[in-house]
Amino acid sequence: MTSMDNEKWTTEQVLSVHYWTPTLLSFRTTRHRGFRFTPGHYARLGLSTSTDEEVWRPYSMVSAAHDEYLEFIAVLVPDGAFSGALRKLKVGDDIKVEKACFGFLTVDQLAPGRDLWLLASGTGLGPMLSILKDPAVWRDFEHLIIAHSVRTSGELAYRDEINSLRQNPLLATGGAQLTYLPIVTREPGASELDSRLTELISNGRLEKAAGRTLKLTDSRLIICGNPELLRDLRQLLGARGFNTNRRGILGQMAFEKYW
User: Fold this and answer.
1) Cα separation of 149 and 137, whole Å?
2) What is the tens place of the pLDDT at every residue in 124-177?
3) Going by C-beta distance under 8 Å and a sequence separation of 6 or more, which residues neighbour residue 243?
4) What is the DSSP letter of 193?
5) What is the pLDDT of residue 151?
């Protein structure tokens, strides 16, 4: 059980729960008027278990910084304490949201560039969506490329919403072009791209599908996924000269793992 000073969090209510698959869900909560975050940040959420213990876990915001609600995406982990409480979540339930938010998966960690590549696996998609809903990103970059890697097509959460962003008048006036690249690795024929992100970068297929070249002068990358993917991509991109933010010097890529 995590002990928390009640001045550090607010109690919000669940507004909606949506299951993409039996183990993948999104949920919305109310948002305290004083809660502020930068797209790409995460917050710590608290739920009570069946034994009345409080369990806290970090989740990135899917919602836009200007939305009146908060939205999150989560995967249910077998025998997970938080997952057990999350599985029972329904509209009207209470959920605690810590007032502070955290993370370095934000655009301000990157040097100015022309192309913003958002690479995600699984629920690593969450912060990418929040970033894509930021009008400033559409003004500051010429091309936005989001690649989402999952095992099965059912896990391609928010697919329709991503495609509809191009028609959002708040974003479209920024002028950037959006390219969405779904990647399904374990369901043959479900997507044009069907290999791991590391392989797609190594063989050039990701760049070909995006119609853009990964190069130090123009490309900036925000990457969120499982630790193995992040380790491999950091090594692969590092060999090409891409760096993260170091000692106040803005880099060309930013990483965050989702467990």
Assistant:
1) 22
2) 999 999 999 999 999 999 999 999 999 999 999 999 999 999 999 999 999 999
3) 251, 252, 253
4) B
5) 97
d(CA 140, CA 113): 8
CA 20 to chain centre: 16
Q: Is 232 exposed, middle or buried (0-12, 13-18, 19+ CB in 10 A)?
A: middle
The helix/strand/coil state of 192 is coil
Average pLDDT, the chain: 95
Q: How far apart are CA 136 and CA 38, in angstroms?
A: 12
Model pLDDT for residues 27-73, shown as the tens digit of each residue: 999 999 999 999 999 999 999 988 889 999 999 999 999 999 999 99
Strands 42-48 and 94-102: antiparallel
Domains of the chain in start order, with CATH, are: 6-102 (2.40.30.10), 107-257 (3.40.50.80)
Q: For strands 54-60 and 42-48, give the pairing.
A: antiparallel
Q: What is the DSSP string of 15-57?
A: EEEEEEETTEEEEEEE--TT----TT-EEEEEEE-TTS-EEEE
What is the SS3 assignment for 130? helix
Burial zone of 195 (CB within 10 Å; 0-12 exposed, 13-18 middle, 19+ buried): middle
Pairwise CA distance, residues 152 & 183, whole Å:
9
Give the pLDDT of residue 202. Answer: 98
How would you class 216 by CB atoms within 10 Å of its CB: exposed for 0-12, middle for 13-18, buried for 19 or more? middle
